[in-house]
């Protein structure tokens, strides 16, 4: 890995050949006021954005299909939260797929330096903490959607766009400019406008637990914001310094896979233990046998969700690596109206249609992303 050429070459034929493995970043984020970083590698940013959109869209569609096919509307209140640990587990359990990428092993050869033992010990603790937060966030969001109307959940969960800049300011020392503020404000509007979206696991009035569901949604939003900011802290404070001290190079995009794999390993262990303690393994057998489309379709839906969530995490962490936690959060939220429209197209949920809210949400989503990307373009031009 250390023998590859850096991506910032003057030769045009070498500018795009290393996507995304060898994309390198400086330790400062683009939206800081005193950034000295080199221009962003646009292909990697665009590819990460596509991963977020595709991964989240497919995962959410399969999640809706899952709840639709298990006839959750027939559940009583004793089965209200059936499957929440399963859904939490699916968000991280697919991480072994990332081990199939051979360049992960190449980067490992550059990280076996005794001078970095402090960083390895610190990273181990940080990965454990991030994994715990990932598991808690997945569990709370899965539970919140089953406790309160999906529109209410969406409104509360949108508060992550308030928490992320706050945490980023204190954890990552980020300074904001007007384009980032505009982008975040439009993203908040986008999230709020998806309140008319439908969800296959939405509870009926008798099943609603507004207090518990609202708190779950709020803390899930806080946890997601903490995740993004701690991802950036790992890159800026540890991986960046470790790589430069051992190889005199900037960290490659393979660092993204390192962060996902180790954090997801911890989260998967926690979710699996929670699943076993809750006895959901018995529910899995029953659901497989009762799945409307058959056992094969059930397995495909579960595997599809696990794979899609990994695609999503690669995009999310990739955007943190390439730009910042704030952009990563913005792109995640502006995908919601896309998912909302796809649900209307592929499902026939009651009273769910393409209304003015979904239309305006698509517009504000496009404007939010455009505002942030325009800022990136100006920053690159200034460099």
From TrEMBL:
Subcellular location: Membrane
Swiss-Prot/TrEMBL keywords: Membrane, Transmembrane, Transmembrane helix, Transport
Domain of life: Eukaryota
Membrane topology: Multi-pass membrane protein
UniProt entry tagged with the keyword Transport: yes
Principal location listed in the UniProt entry: membrane
Any GO MF annotation of the entry: purine nucleobase transmembrane transporter activity
Cellular compartments per GO CC: membrane
PANTHER family cross-referenced by the UniProt entry: OS09G0467300 PROTEIN-RELATED (PTHR31376), PURINE PERMEASE 14-RELATED (PTHR31376:SF62)
Record-stated family: Belongs to the purine permeases (TC 2.A.7.14) family.
The protein's name in its UniProt record: Probable purine permease
């Amino acid at each position: 890995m250390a023998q590859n050429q850096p991506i910032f070459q003057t030769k045009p034929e070498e500018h795009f050949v290393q996507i995304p493995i060898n994309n390198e970043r400086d330790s400062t984020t683009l939206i800081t006021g005193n950034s000295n970083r080199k221009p962003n590698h646009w292909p990697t940013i665009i590819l990460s954005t596509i991963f977020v959109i595709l991964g989240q869209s497919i995962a959410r569609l399969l999640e809706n299909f899952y709840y639709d096919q298990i006839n959750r509307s027939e559940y009583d209140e004793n089965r209200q939260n059936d499957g929440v640990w399963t859904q939490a587990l699916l968000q991280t359990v697919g991480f072994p797929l990332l081990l199939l990428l051979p360049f992960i092993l190449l980067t490992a050869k550059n990280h076996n330096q005794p001078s970095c033992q402090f960083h390895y010990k610190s990273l181990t603790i940080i990965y454990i903490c991030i994994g715990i937060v990932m598991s808690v966030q997945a569990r709370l969001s899965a539970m919140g959607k089953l406790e309160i109307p999906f529109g209410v959940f969406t409104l509360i969960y949108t508060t992550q766009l308030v928490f992320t800049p706050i945490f980023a300011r204190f954890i990552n020392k980020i300074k904001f400019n007007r384009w980032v503020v505009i982008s975040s404000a439009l993203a908040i509007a986008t999230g709020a406008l998806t309140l008319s979206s439908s969800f296959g696991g939405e509870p009926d009035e008798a099943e609603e637990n507004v207090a518990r569901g609202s708190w779950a949604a709020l803390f899930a939003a806080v946890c997601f914001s903490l995740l993004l900011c701690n991802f950036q802290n790992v890159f800026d404070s540890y991986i960046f310094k470790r790589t430069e001290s051992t190889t005199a190079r900037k960290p490659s995009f393979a660092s993204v896979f390192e962060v996902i794999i180790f954090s997801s390993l911890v989260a998967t262990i926690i979710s699996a233990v929670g699943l076993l303690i809750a006895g959901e393994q018995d529910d899995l057998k029953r659901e497989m046998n009762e799945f409307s489309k058959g056992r094969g379709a059930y397995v495909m839906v579960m595997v599809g969700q696990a794979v899609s969530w990994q695609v999503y995490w690669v995009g999310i962490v990739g955007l943190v690596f390439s730009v910042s936690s704030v952009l990563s959060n913005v792109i995640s939220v502006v995908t919601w109206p896309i998912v909302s429209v796809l649900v209307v197209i592929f499902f026939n949920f009651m009273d769910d249609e393409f209304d003015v809210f979904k239309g305006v949400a698509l517009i504000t989503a496009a404007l939010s992303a455009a505002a942030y990307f325009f800022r990136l373009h100006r920053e690159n031009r200034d460099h």
